[in-house]
Each structure stands twice: as C-alpha cells, then as structure tokens.
Amino acid sequence: MPNAISGFSKLSKSEKIDWLIDTYFSDKEAARNLVEQYWNTDETIQKLHDEFIENTITNYYLPLGVAPNFLINQKLYTIPMAIEESSVVAAASKAAKFWLDRGGFNAEIISTEKIGQVHFTYDGDFKALKSFFENVKPKLIEDTKDITKNMERRGGGILDIELRPKTEDLEYYYQLHATFETLDAMGANFINSCLEQFAKTFQQEAEHKLEGQLDIVMSILSNYVPNCLVRAEVSCPIEDLKSKDISSPSLFAQKFKQAINIAEIEPYRAVTHNKGIMNGIDAVVLATGNDFRAVEAGVHAYAAKEGSYKSLTHCSIEDGVFKFWIEIPLALGTVGGLTTLHPLVKFALDMLENPSAKELMQIVAVAGLAQNFAAVKSLTTTGIQEGHMKMHLLNILNQFGATTTEKEKLIEHFKTHIVTHSAVVEAIEKIRR
Ligand SMILES: CC(C)(COP(=O)([O-])OP(=O)([O-])OC[C@H]1O[C@@H](n2cnc3c(N)ncnc32)[C@H](O)[C@@H]1OP(=O)([O-])[O-])[C@@H](O)C(=O)NCCC(=O)NCCSC(=O)C[C@@](C)(O)CC(=O)[O-]
Ligand SMILES: NC(=O)C1=CN([C@@H]2O[C@H](COP(=O)(O)OP(=O)(O)OC[C@H]3O[C@@H](n4cnc5c(N)ncnc54)[C@H](O)[C@@H]3O)[C@@H](O)[C@H]2O)C=CC1
C-alpha cells in the first residue's frame, strides 16, 4: 500500500505526475507517455483544460458525435452528443429521421423557476418566527441588491422567499425556501450567492429582534426543479408509423404503448427505460458544457415524485393517433459555467445556432424522447441487440486489434450474420488462421 501524501495540491503538474508514476506504475515510461500523449499540442488549450478542475494531469477524451435531421418546432437542428456508448448517436439519428417525415418534434417550456434554500434551526415560538420573517423579508431582498442588479436588468432575479416549517419531520428544522428566475444561466452560483446573503442578514437580524436560538445550518440551491419544466412530443396517425421495421403500425403502436405502460408501473423496468432517455439527455447536456450530475439528480427525483419511480415518457393512442411525449425538469445554461470557456462547447452551441436556455431545454428534452423512441421501438420489434451489437462491432474488433483489412472483411461478413461477442471472436480467429 502506498504512503499517503500531504501537500499534493501544492506540487506542480509535473511533480504530481512524477509522484503518481513513481507510486503506482511499474512501466514508468509507458505510463508517462500515455499521460503526455493526451495533452493538447496547443499549450493555451491545454492550460485552459488544466484549470477547469484541480490536480489535472491530462485530458480524458469522450467522442463528440452529431445527430442530424432533428426537426423541432419546425426548425432543423443537428444535435451535438458527447458519449462513450455505441449505438446511441445512431439511434437518435434514426429517430430524428423517422419523425422528420412525420411532422417532427413539438416542444414547449412549461416553467423556468429555480429553487434554493437556507436550512436553519430555531428553538422558539413559530408565531414569533413567522412575524419576524415577514418583517425581515424586504431586507433579505434589499441586502442582495448588489448580487441581483444585473440579473434584474435582464428580467430575472429573486421571485419569492417563503418560510417553511419542517419541525414535523425534524426537530427545530425550518427553511427559507426561495425561488429564482435565472434566464440563460443554470444559476447555481447566482442562487448560492443570494442564499448566503439571505442567511447572513437573517442571522444578524435574529440576534437583535427574535427571541430564542436561531442557527443557520447551510444555504444551497436545490437541483430538484419541478417548476423548471419542458415538454416534448411527437404524434402521427397510426397508419403513418409504417416503415422499414414496422409492417403492422397498429400492432406496433399497441405494443409500444404497452412497453411505456410497463415502465409507468414497474420500477425495475422504469430505471432501464429512463437510462435509455438519459443516453440522449446526458450526451447533449455534456456536449453543451452543462452540469449532468445536476440534471441526472433532478430528473430522477422527478421520476419518483409520486412516491414510486416511473417512466419519464408517456404514450397515448386516441382516435387513431399515436402520441408519445416526455415532461422533464431541466436547469440548463447557455451562459456561465463552461459554456463560453470550453472551445468544443462553444462549437456545439454555435452548431445549435446559439440557443437561449429555453431553446436548449427543448432540444435536450427532444434528444431524450428520440432516444427513448428508438430504444423502445427496437425492444418491441427486432430486440435491442441487433442494432446495438451492429454498432458495437467496431469496439469488439478494436479490442482484438483488428487491422483495417480485417475490419473491412468482418464488417462485410456481419452485414448478413448476427453480431455477438463470441461470433466476432470466432470470425477473427477464422480469418487469422
Ligand atoms: C442502431 C440502429 C440505429 C440501427 O438501425 P438500422 O435500421 O440498422 O439503421 P440503418 O442502417 O437502416 O440506418 C437508418 C438510420 O439510422 C441511423 N444510423 C444507422 N447506423 C448509423 C451509424 N453507424 N452511424 C450514424 N447513424 C446511423 C441513421 O440516421 C440512418 O440513416 P442515414 O444516415 O443512412 O440516412 C437501431 O437498431 C436502433 O435505433 N437501435 C436502438 C439502439 C439504442 O437504443 N441504443 C442505446 C444503447 S442500449 C441502452 O443503453 C438503452 C436501453 C435499450 O437499455 C434502454 C431501454 O431499455 O429502454
Ligand atoms: N448543486 C449544483 O448544481 C451546483 C453547481 N455549480 C456549478 O455552477 C455552474 C453554473 O452556475 P451559474 O450561476 O449558472 O454560472 P456562472 O457562475 O458562470 O454565472 C452565470 C452568470 O452569467 C451572467 N449572465 C450573462 N448573461 C446572462 C443571461 N442572458 N442570463 C442569465 N445570466 C446571464 C449572470 O451574471 C450569471 O450569474 C455550473 O458549472 C455548475 O456545475 C456550483 C455549485 C453547486
């Protein structure tokens, strides 16, 4: 076991790499070469990446793919997707193309409110606390003026602050529950700055004007944003579903709806179903430099809002019309965070013609819906493995170090044979004999 190290953060980048290689690697030259191989040749770009996080030693690549042909609210987009899993970009592209011929996707913003809370304890009388809060509320807002003035000029800012008693769940526990409009910013830093100022003013005022002990526990935004909602939808007459892989549209529609119904009542299925949705959502969220952990946490909380974990997508068949939709909370930014810093994020946003946060919410929701449509369509028709393994073939070939000629031969071979890991291994061995 290696010894712990103190002061690691104070070492230079090259000293950190030296320590790491000396401590963990026997083939020191190979390890150092690998780390250096992933450095950007442009020192300015490398420095930028070094400074995104702490203790950076090199870069970790993910492929950036694009899915064309997304018609959203009658505007055509090519959507950027950063993801490691094969078949996701192909599936999104295929769903986009399918719906392009059937009127495209419609998306709408339902709401854009963000939330933050000051968590505190108080051991006195609730009535006294309530009256103190009502008196101090204008000052809470007034004291954040320096933080909020620019956001207010743009049309956003603090929407409201409420006092919420939580003592039934936890002794002495209360909240200042605040709502915000942060426009094109995800808003985490703006909200946290406001909340910390609320806490400071609240505590200071309480010391002179409130009987009983009031202690601030913490001030932080919530990544659960059920009132920052977007809805995306596709629909068409059932007979228009007919396509290369759908010979009986009405049977397909019934089976597809049944698959969604199952994900609405069965958590084991719902989790995988929603994972398929997040294949699309995370890929676009990452490509556009947004915080995918925040989105993931909020989306899954929303999926469980009724007490059990459910599908985020829904389907109906009414009057001969097939309708499929998603409704999800998404706190996204097109300014702030990494959005203007990472050159490829800038590229991705340029490709989307520099959307507002609202437009990006719609694009991301559509990517999730399209992904889910492709996956459930495969699951209820051919099965998932056929298409997924077709795309995964290159990964298996690369694992076995296949040459370009071997790849060409095997890709041709697997156009007419089912791809499984063992079938690929067998075929490689055969052509190498
Ligand atoms: C994989 C496909 C698309 C093949 O589908 P296919 O019918 O064999 O494709 P095709 O060769 O006929 O091409 C049709 C279109 O698909 C796209 N496409 C096709 N191939 C490519 C490619 N190489 N690169 C880029 N795009 C591709 C592209 O849009 C293309 O049009 P074109 O560009 O030719 O005009 C289909 O089988 C499919 O959609 N499968 C679903 C795959 C999927 O969902 N993958 C996610 C990973 S599995 C998982 O994590 C989630 C899951 C499944 O568990 C979720 C759940 O359970 O709900
Ligand atoms: N729990 C969480 O999710 C947390 C996330 N974070 C991180 O915070 C970052 C996001 O915070 P932000 O405050 O969004 O970014 P930020 O701190 O970069 O601020 C964005 C700023 O851009 C300015 N702005 C310019 N034009 C604007 C417009 N049209 N609309 C709105 N604002 C405009 C505003 O002053 C705004 O405050 C992400 O990197 C995230 O990972 C940080 C703390 C906690």
UniProtKB/TrEMBL annotation:
InterPro entries per the UniProt record, alphabetical: HMG_CoA_Rdtase, HMG_CoA_Rdtase_bac-typ, HMG_CoA_Rdtase_cat_sf, HMG_CoA_Rdtase_NAD(P)-bd_sf, HMG_CoA_Rdtase_sub-bd_dom_sf
PROSITE patterns, alphabetized: HMG_COA_REDUCTASE_4
Any one Pfam family match given in the protein's UniProt record, by short name: HMG-CoA_red
Involved pathway(s): Metabolic intermediate metabolism; (R)-mevalonate degradation; (S)-3-hydroxy-3-methylglutaryl-CoA from (R)-mevalonate: step 1/1
Enzyme Commission number(s): 1.1.1.88
Signal peptide: none
The keyword Transmembrane helix is assigned to this record: no
One Gene Ontology molecular-function label: hydroxymethylglutaryl-CoA reductase (NADH) activity
Catalytic reaction(s) noted: (R)-mevalonate + 2 NAD(+) + CoA = (3S)-3-hydroxy-3-methylglutaryl-CoA + 2 NADH + 2 H(+)
Keyword set, alphabetical order: NAD, Oxidoreductase
Family annotation (PANTHER family): 3-HYDROXY-3-METHYLGLUTARYL-COENZYME A REDUCTASE (PTHR10572:SF24)
The family this protein is said to belong to: Belongs to the HMG-CoA reductase family.
This protein's name: 3-hydroxy-3-methylglutaryl coenzyme A reductase
Source species of the chain: Winogradskyella aquimaris
